UniProtKB/TrEMBL annotation:
Pfam family name, one: Peptidase_S51
InterPro entries: Class_I_gatase-like (IPR029062), Peptidase_S51 (IPR005320)
Any one GO MF annotation of this record: serine-type peptidase activity
Keyword Ubl conjugation part of the UniProt annotation: no
Similarity annotation: Belongs to the peptidase S51 family.
Gene3D superfamilies reported for this sequence: 3.40.50.880
Entry protein name: dipeptidase E
Major subcellular site: cytoplasm
Keyword terms: Cytoplasm, Dipeptidase, Hydrolase, Protease, Serine protease
Root EC class: hydrolase
Gene Ontology BP annotations: proteolysis
Top-level taxon of the source organism: Bacteria
Places the protein is found: Cytoplasm
Length: 246
């Protein structure tokens, strides 16, 4: 992968109904790894680092991919030497606090710029964007900053749920929450339904997966439906800025 061309696989979720952990995305995972036989797994979005890493190990080692947890040594050093990195899901605030506390921001960015494959799922996909502001998670800890890796220049909302007209839930829908984000920020948001992923390779961004795709939200316009298999590289041209107000 040439310098400056990220090689990313950003999953909305790691499980699908009736399938084993990561099974729905096995072909995509092998594609992004492109023959690499090991990766470092970043488990810090969950409290049980050993158990989480073991789950990833059980899923990937049958594919010929050796897995080492980032907590099983010095995280910065392990990432610096990794063939690939996979950042798992869980609570995004906890993950972002660990990323800052452990000094992983710059090393992940540098390695991705060199062409190292980056895989993310859920919270791991959230942190591939510039900020955690479009996460669905409760702030159970206080990270020093909302800044994340910024491997793509727009925001993503994993686990996107369409409004349910029959629901009795009185809180905001996901669409309403994203609209509130756009009232304060002029940055597109890609809402990824369960079973979808964003593949970034050779400068092309493609929404793919085993479900009905997602929706793109941009300030000042109606949401756009994006079926699986759609090239969404155009999102880069729509990026404005954060904290611009109403």
């Amino acid at each position: 992968m040439p310098q400056g061309q990220p090689n990313l696989l950003l999953l909305s979720n790691s499980t699908a109904p009736g399938r084993a952990y990561l099974e729905h995305a096995r072909d995509a995972i092998l594609q992004v790894l492109d023959g690499r036989r090991s990766l470092v797994f970043v488990p810090f979005a969950l409290a049980d680092h050993d158990g989480y890493t073991d789950a990833v190990r059980r899923a990937l080692e049958p594919l010929g991919v050796a897995v080492r947890g980032a907590h099983e040594g010095t995280p910065r050093d392990l990432v610096a030497d990794a063939e690939a990195v996979f950042v798992g899901g869980g609570n995004t605030f906890r993950l972002v606090k660990a990323i800052h506390d452990l000094g992983l921001l710059d090393v992940v960015r540098a390695r991705v710029a060199e062409g190292m494959p980056y895989l993310g799922s859920s919270a791991g996909t959230n942190v591939a964007t510039p900020t955690l502001r479009t996460t669905n998670d409760m702030p159970i800890v206080a990270p020093p900053s909302f800044e994340t890796f910024g491997l793509v220049p727009f925001q993503i909302n994993p686990h996107y749920l369409d409004p349910d007209p029959s629901s009795t839930h009185q809180g905001e829908t996901r669409e309403e929450r994203i609209t509130q984000f756009l009232e304060e920020n002029d940055v597109p948001v890609l809402g990824m339904r369960e079973g979808t992923w964003l593949r970034v390779s050779d400068g092309v961004m493609r929404l793919d997966g085993v479900s009905a795709g997602g929706r793109v939200f941009c300030r000042g316009s109606e949401p756009v439906e994006v079926p699986s298999g759609t090239d969404v590289t155009w999102l880069v041209e729509r990026v404005g800025s954060f904290d611009v107000g109403g």
